[in-house]
Here is the input.
Amino acid sequence: MENINQRIDDLENSVKQLNAEQGRTTEMLNAVLAELQSLKTSLQKDAAAQQTEVPFVRRSTSFVLPAKKQVPTATNSFRKDQLENLIGSNIINKIGILVTVVGVFIGAKYAIEKELISATTRIILGYSVAAVLCLLAYRLKAKYIDYSAVLMSGAIAIIYFITYIAHSFYHLFPQPIAFGLMLFTTVFVVSMSIWYNRKIIALLGQVGAYAIPFLLSTGNENLPLLYGYLSIINIGLLFLSFKRDWKLIYEFAFGFSWFIFAFSFLNAKNLATGFTSNIIFLLVNFIIFYTAFLANKIIKKELYSIAEIGILLINAVAFFLLGYYLINNAFDNEHFLTLFTLGNALIHLVIGERIRWLKLADETVTLFILGLGLTFFTVSIPIHFEGNTITALWAVEAVFLSYIGFTKKRETYHILSIALLLLTLGSLLIDWKQDYVADSTISIATQPFLNANFLSSLFVCICFGVIGKLSIKYPQEKQGLVKSVLTVAVPLAFILLTYLNFLQEIELGWRIYQISHASEALNSFKLLSLQGFSIGYVSIWLWLNWQFFKEKHLATILVIVGLYALFIALIGGLTEIGILRDLYLQQNSGKTLSMLGIRYGYFLLIAALVLGITSNLKTFLPSQNTTKLIALVFNSTLLVLLCNEFIHWMDIGGYSNQYKLGLSIIFAVYALSMVITGISKKLKHIRMGGIILFGITLCKVLFYDLSSLSTISKTVVLIVLGVIMLIASFLYNKFKDSIFGNETETMVDKS
Here is the structure.
């Protein structure tokens, strides 16, 4: 029922608007028809007067051909006549009245400075000149309407000028009377523009009115009076631009008004003295243009162009910047700046929501105004807060916008949330740069994982995670960059930021601990803890994706990161474990469990990482190449761990330098086990891996091991390696039928 009543009201308003437009159209049509009939009657009279001369013209046939040849000359002459007519009847009169008005201004200023005549006489003469121009314009309107309109506009500009100086310089009028005269003049401008239906009256009146503050500038102007004067002019001219749909009037008033405000603010000696009146008129000027712009579009149901949206944006930004400058110069308290910024946000949010609810304008404008409100709210955060609080509040705002975008299916809110996420990310990186500083500035009292920096950063990471969760819960149908950012980039950012946040706190904890504890082993423990956390973190996400998320793209990224982490663990991590073992053996002191037993905890983390990588590869990236990759990862990792374990126990037992003979035997035995496994499981890639490992082992023995081994050692390693390779070859020959089927027999028969 409420919707029906609302629709009825809308239709009635539309009928009223159409009736009004029809009335105006009818009046204009009647005027055009009357003028057309008058012109036809005049032509008929001229034709009747010249009718007696037509026979004589027709008898003179000898001039017909030359007349045709002179057509181009006639056309050129006609064009020249048009240009001359444009200059003589249009341009010259406008320049003339402008020069006249400027001359009156300059003459009046000279008379003021030299005190040639009394103040009252100057004002009377000024009004007299304006009255003469008005009377002359009135008398000429019937026959020379354009010329008359120019004279009228000049008279109006002079009236503005005289009223201003009579009050501001001579104090002949009290303020109420001066404002009343200006208001009357503005009404007069509007009425004359409508009566003449000529834009030139309003434009030239504007030029004169806005030029007054600059022509009479002394540096000691009464700013409240100036702003009130501008406000009155703007109200009248904006009403006129709306009434006649003269957009140029609106744009002209908009540009001049904000320029005058900015010029007067920047050149004012003490803005704090007249703060109240300044801020009031600044707000009035903002509301005038804001209201005129929206009312014009809402009532006429017009769509907004990019240029008009730009004007709306400039109006909001100019008001905010000038207001911010005014408050910042008048007060030392930053809370006033925050309140002013929030007030800007509230204005746009309320207006935008009201327009959206009443469906007064197209959606683009509504979203743009709401976006302005959210922008000012975002700006208020760094004005009032600092450090981690800014980052956290921006993150909350991004979550709020994302939620609206997902639930209401509005892509604009998604774009705003992405912009805020970028701001949040930048602010977070700045916070990290400031928080995690050099060792010399770290306090021992700082508690890792229990400080404001870590907790605020963790909150921001959670906000990224919430947006990623919303993208899964509310899948978008429309493909594009926005969807890719929300469904891929944001979840990955959550994973990466959370990792970096914890990693930095672990490093911070070690740096604090190292301030009060000196030990050679601490650096190795620090690196192992960082690497162990990295391995465990990637393993957890691999398991979560395998069990719950089941995202193929995420699996691909996690597998790549996991392989990199595995490589670092096998190279860097095992090296640090070896350093701890060497320190323990050299010093013959230290905790055995921490310095020697840490390796097995590290091995468990590596095993978990390998399990996560292989599980995701099998589940989300199944292929023949994936099977080979899994075998390569598993066997390479196991072989490296076996070799490291062998070296570890050899060093503890006092048998060092086993990197040659012992490792070569382990390589050969492992290669044999791969061949046996490949034969029994009929896995060609495992068998080929064993053969390749045999080749690597043989090269190692020949080019590296034998160069420094004794004769007995050379004999042992070569015999062992040869026996192992013979066993592998025997197994191939024995089980070739099961390995290759009948392929070998067929080939032999054919040969």
